[in-house]
UniProtKB/TrEMBL annotation:
It comes from Streptomyces purpurascens. It holds the Pfam family Pentapeptide_4. Gene3D superfamilies: E3 ubiquitin-protein ligase SopA. It comes from the Bacteria. InterPro entries: 5peptide_repeat, Pentapeptide-BTB/POZ_domain. Residues 1-42 are annotated as: Disordered. This is Pentapeptide repeat-containing protein. Residues 7-17 have a biased composition (Gly residues).
Length: 231
């Protein structure tokens, strides 16, 4: 079983916002995945999926424990209700990957290239998403706790109705973020390289932003609140 040494929940930047606990996934020696296709409710333990072609396969309800997925194709792969535990996903790519209501716990996702991944209703706990680009990420009604987005590009991510607790954005480009009906607690946006919010500005209570970000958001806030700025 993988050993995890998560970071502490110290106060980020001395502002009173609680920092996210980061996973540190340490995998045991892995056996190569033998192929044959994913199976619904399958049990995958201690396997390495290297450059596996998983396009269109059905792994709904499957459990991945102490696994590594490297360079795998996940186009239209069905992983609804799947569980990824103590696992590392590196360089995965795909369009329309279905991870609705999945569970990711103690997971590192590195250099992913994903388009329209469906994670609505998912549960993410102690997850690090580092590098890569994710377009149209659907996290509606998801629950995120101790999640770090680092050095990645998120294009029009949808957090509508989601609950975010101890979530950090570090050196990320956030384009067109939708926070409609979301609940934020100890969410640190100060490290975002760029921050564009398309909806749900009223949900920023519970988040911390920098002075520069506040100035950048001022025109949108004024419009949201019906403030006329002249002169």
């Amino acid at each position: 079983m993988a050993r995890r040494a998560a970071g502490g929940t110290g106060v980020a930047g001395g502002t009173g916002v609680k920092g996210a606990r980061r996973p540190e996934v340490r995998l045991p020696p892995l056996e190569p995945y033998g192929g044959g296709g994913l199976e619904p409710d399958g049990d995958y333990d201690g396997l390495e999926f290297r450059d596996a072609e998983l396009t269109g396969q059905d792994g709904a309800g499957a459990r991945f424990m102490d696994c590594a997925l490297k360079g795998c194709a996940l186009d239209e792969t069905r992983l609804r209700h799947a569980r990824f535990l103590d696992s590392a996903l590196t360089g995965v790519r795909g369009v329309g990957t279905d991870l609705a209501e999945a569970t990711l716990r103690d997971v590192e996702l590195t250099d992913a290239r994903l388009g329209g991944p469906q994670l609505h209703g998912a549960v993410l706990e102690r997850v690090l998403i580092r590098g890569g680009k994710i377009d149209y990420l659907n996290l509606r009604t998801a629950r995120l706790r101790d999640v770090v987005f680092e050095g990645c590009v998120l294009v029009e991510p949808d957090f509508g109705g989601a609950r975010l607790e101890r979530v950090e954005f570090v050196d990320c480009a956030l384009k067109g973020v939708d926070l409609h009906a979301a609940t934020l607690t100890d969410v640190d946006l100060r490290g975002a390289a760029s921050l564009e919010i398309s909806g749900g500005l009223d949900r920023l209570s519970g988040a911390v932003i920098s002075t520069a970000q506040l100035l950048d958001l001022a025109p949108v806030l004024a419009m949201e609140w019906g403030i006329r700025v002249e002169g």
